[in-house]
Design brief:
Number of domains of chain A: 2
Order of helices and strands of chain A: EEEHEHEHHEEEHEHEHHHEEEEEH
Oligomer: homodimer
Structural class of chain A: alpha+beta
Largest sheet of chain A: 6 strands, mixed
Radius of gyration of chain A: 21 Å
Strand content of chain A: 15-25%
CATH architecture of the largest domain in chain A: 4-Layer Sandwich
Chain lengths: 385, 385
């Protein structure tokens, strides 16, 4: 299921030897058509991996026949040799599937600086091995092959009226992944052209992956790819399609948040009554990136002072002395003064809700993040990643 | 010594009962003159504690007779009652010393939201107790009374030609303190007017405390105060004075970095050959605020990929594929490709040096930060602060 849920898609995942654990590390997804329209959203980091540079060229004409993804090496900061490896990967897929290399997206995830001869040999070997295995039942293997520190594969489907969407994801956040990279592949059998797909994908990622901010660290390899086969013969309205793909992305984003490395709390920071949506996002993000607040949540300490100290660093329109803050339903700060006692807040559930009322307008946004834990420090210090 | 090293100053520190540990928690410093010129730099956080709001009024005329500081409560987000407490504190000092309340600075540090009747009672009681103890030997007691999670008091002196500077500090960073607040009191017996003191103080903090970025979290209570007695009768040039106060602030900033909570590495991030100083600061700060990089340093892992991923998020002028990165003297990345093997980098020393060569100009800046450790998480989750 997942990426092979919509009609017209095959997938597979194999072991290429890139992961020291010996687990699956090469995934391939093919679009059988009849359409090969596509859209891609890339990392906004200026430091971009070679597969990103390659894929940006591929998507310029809005046509994608297949996407190959590897874990076990980011192929980033590996110079022209690394770029040639991405190019050769696309050529190898093209040769195996009888398509054009210029229509093959490439994604990599893993350690920056890994992308030498051994990496190239294993990737190309993996492509030879994975192509013959493509099938309509290969979605889970593909989703498994892109995992890095993920503890479970992430998949989702959404059904429309006679058409559907499927998706797989790895990582923990687009603009701010918790570990290395977020890679997402979304498939659909709806009949839509590339500009429509692009508009819907950007609308969806803006309010889902872009608002998942696990640790404020933006990756060099983030890529969200949308492939449309048109095999259903059905053309939904752009509004219908946008609603459906937003739901799919929200589902995958929540799975990423729930599996964020080392986290013990899933924190939703909801900012209400902001002057505009940008302000609401900025305020929520400032809290999501505040280590002191995130460590307090780990300790089940409803430290609302750290929320106010965080939002005070923003340029958003509000009166710092007329803000209400609630945590898990208890208003601990009213108009900038202590309200209900902090001791009445129960932060032991994994799901944590912070509500910030700016009292200046009507705009709202919710940022998803995680707490800062011993396990986060351990996972990011004990192993290179 | 310290704040009582220059002529014309008295200091003291006592136990007022604000700290649950029973340690000293109220400090008082008096300027005996003949001059009472002063300058203050405040937090840029829009969420400002009541003592900040009070002290901003005091400094408008450039005259300060005394400064009273408490630990054990930030008196922030405590409403008009809290502001009245700051006001009453200044009145109490004024009454005890026979000066004007409008010339008394107030500083607080501790938990946001603490500032009720019990806090007020203890602060006012502490002021009654501390005023009679003022002496030229009270500097260490004062420096001790402003400590929160600091493990040692921080003091420094610099001698000029016939005049001197003294200082005390607590916390870990001005624009981005590691825990709660950074408070600094600097004294001098040089003869300088308030505008000159202000110019020198801003020049000094800009390249010292402003570049200490332990964990990216900006406090509501940060305050750096400079009091000048004129008791030496000597007027240094502004250049001489600025050089000396910059050295004093750099000394205190290094003491703050070395005592940052839970840290096991003092990291200096030096950016060279930037187009301008702002770019160099932005690049260094992006690395200093990258949790993945900071956790890697804790694990003694020279993960230069995380440096490049961090600086790629900035708007600074450089080519992301033509940057060199060295760690502790080993160039691990040259022109965006792997250079010396990471295994040749020894990150076990506490002092860690990261050198980033942007290759576009001649500007340089160094940002000081710390690693992200289990102890950091522990100290900020296990205790409210």
């Amino acid at each position: 299921m997942s990426v092979t849920h919509p009609q017209g898609f095959l997938a597979a995942g194999v072991v290429a030897g890139l992961k020291s654990t010996g687990k699956r590390d090469i995934a391939l997804v093919q679009n059988l058509g009849p359409s090969q329209a596509a859209a891609v959203v890339f990392t906004s980091n200026r430091a971009q991996a070679n597969p990103i540079i390659w894929s940006k060229q591929v998507i310029t004409d809005g046509i994608v026949s297949a996407i190959v993804l590897n874990s076990g090496g980011a192929n980033c900061y590996t110079g022209s040799f690394g770029f040639q490896t991405s190019h050769q990967s696309a050529e190898a897929v093209a040769s195996a599937l009888g398509v054009s290399a210029g229509d093959v997206l490439v994604c990599s995830t893993g350690l920056i600086g890994v992308g030498g001869q051994d990496f190239r040999d294993k990737v190309l070997g993996g492509i030879s091995a994975v192509a013959p295995l493509l099938s309509v039942t290969g979605g889970l293997d593909a989703a498994t092959a892109i995992m890095t520190t993920d503890s479970v594969p992430k998949q989702a489907v959404v059904n429309g009226a006679g058409w559907s969407l499927g998706g797989m994801a790895k990582g923990a956040g687009m603009l701010a992944p918790g570990l290395a990279t977020m890679l997402v592949v979304i498939t659909t059998d709806a009949v839509l052209d590339s500009p429509s797909l692009d508009a819907a994908l950007r609308a969806a990622t803006r309010v889902t992956f872009d608002r998942l901010d696990s640790d404020g660290c933006m990756s060099t390899n983030d890529q969200v790819s949308l492939l449309a086969s048109g095999a259903s013969g059905v053309t939904p309205t752009l509004a219908e399609f946008t609603t459906a793909i937003t739901a799919l992305c929200a589902d995958l984003a929540q799975q990423l948040q729930a599996d964020a490395e080392g986290a013990s709390h899933n924190i939703s920071i909801e900012t209400i009554n902001a002057a505009n949506e940008d302000d609401a996002v900025e305020v929520g993000r400032s809290v999501a990136r505040n280590n002191l607040f995130k460590a307090a949540v780990f300790g089940n300490d409803p430290n609302w002072g750290r929320v106010l100290a965080a939002i005070g660093t923003t340029k958003a329109d509000f009166d710092p002395y007329d803000v209400d803050v609630s945590m898990n339903g208890v208003r601990v700060c009213k108009s900038g003064e202590p309200d209900e006692p902090s001791t009445s807040v129960d932060l032991t559930p994994r799901a944590t809700h912070v509500l910030i009322d700016l009292k200046v307008g009507t705009a709202t946004a919710t940022i998803l993040t995680n707490d800062l834990t011993h396990d986060y420090v351990h996972e990011n210090s004990a192993y290179a990643s």
